[in-house]
From TrEMBL:
Family, similarity comment: Belongs to the tRNA methyltransferase O family.
Organism this protein belongs to: Esox lucius
Basic and acidic residues bias spans: 336-350
GO process annotations (BP): methylation; tRNA processing
Methyltransferase among keywords: yes
Lineage, top ranks: Eukaryota, Metazoa, Chordata, Craniata, Vertebrata
Signal sequence annotation: none
Name by which UniProt lists this protein: tRNA (adenine(37)-N6)-methyltransferase
Amino acid sequence: MSATCNSADHFNKLQQQISVMRKEIKNLRQLLDSAVRSHRKHMTSLQSALTHTGQDAAPKRQPIPQTERMTQNSLEKGTIQTVPIGYISSCFSAKNGTPRQPTICGPSRATLQIRRSVFNNPEHSLIGLENYSHVWVVFLFHENGHLSYKAKVTPPRLNGQKVGVYSTRSPHRPNALGLTLAKLDKVAGDTLHLSEVDMIAGTPVLDIKPFIPDYDSPLHRPNVDSDKSGLQPEGTTCAECVGSDFVAPSPCTDNAQLALEVEGKDGGHGQSADPRLLNRKEKSNVLSPGDASSTSVPEALGKDLSTVLEELSAFISQGNDHLNLGSSSRESQASDGRKAKPLKQEEDGAKPCYGEEAYSTIAGWIREPPVTSLEVRFTPQAERDLGVFLGPDSAEPPGCNQPRFKFLRGPKEAASAIQGILAADPRSVYRRSRCVDRLFFFTLDTADITCWFGPGFAEVLQVKPLAV
Ligand SMILES: C[S@@+](CC[C@H](N)C(=O)[O-])C[C@H]1O[C@@H](n2cnc3c(N)ncnc32)[C@H](O)[C@@H]1O
């Protein structure tokens, strides 16, 4: 009996000692990691200072202080010292058990207070954010434990199979950066109240950006791959443009064409090509539950409605490690083998949600900005200039005199790109409202473009090959 007690005591003591040693090892690891980190930072700034001494790339009006110059050079080289804007307080204190992706556990809540050391008035930095329902949180996997990373990883849900780290959401990556789409429940002064998070308490946050489906979701992008969109291939003309050598960007633009397809009726060439309007059309068609069956969007996408809804739902609830395995594997995401459900039900059951728009909101000015888009014109000279550019795969021998694009497929794609850039008015507010000089220059691929702005329009005057 007493021998049993003694060995039980001994066992307990040993266990206690092991747990103390484990804690010590953990502390030592953290110390080592932070020493390695600060050594790396130190080396990086030293290196950058050495490499760049006397090599300021950008012309500067005033001499820039040494420290600022070092920062600027580091930025140009892509090596910056990060400054957390705040640290996550969350309901998860350890990595174990923390959801692998935010969608797994809705009530996973967190707060983030913007630090006063970053802004004098941190609450000012959050003004306007309350209009958004979701935010991107860019953070550091500060508890990775070790700084090693490998080109191939084994995501838990792939059960031992290896894939490239960049095809996964693995925390173990060269720059240990995490990206989470969190629900923004409330902004209170300098603090964000979040839910649907997968970050542990103490996580350093580097940045916050509003989630804007119009920019962030491919479902909202009008410019789909031209091969799949049924658009005119480069070098061909649409019926309205026949007779002109130059394929003018408007009214045969990608956006306008797609808008017609999405609407499923002939809207005429006077229809707006504004992607914002297109987005509204998509929204009312795809995402309104009542109208869903009558929409022509599935037709425009070449898919049936249930596939569209399913893909929409799968996109929203991107699974662990977000492996792009295609729709068939997305179906298998549910652990019980059922297909992913297209509808998401809010917790209180009162608000069934049909896709991201139903539960994501954005500031009104994103879709209805106080600045109107511009009409874009090309002078005959500019049309001629652009018309001589060749695409990268042109049959003309590389040595020929004609200028050649490196990225754009040819004059039509370039015209469409120029149209998009200028219609959105690329000028700064200062330039738009104060500058007398209305000429505007920019480069696109291998072309140097000169244009000017008048009331409600932008006109391309000249397109020349970029001087090399
Ligand atoms: C697979 S990662 C995905 C994170 C993010 N959604 C992304 O895609 O970049 C989520 C896991 O990272 C771990 N994690 C969360 N916060 C962390 C932190 N600060 N340091 C290290 N690991 C963390 C947790 O174990 C969590 O399950």
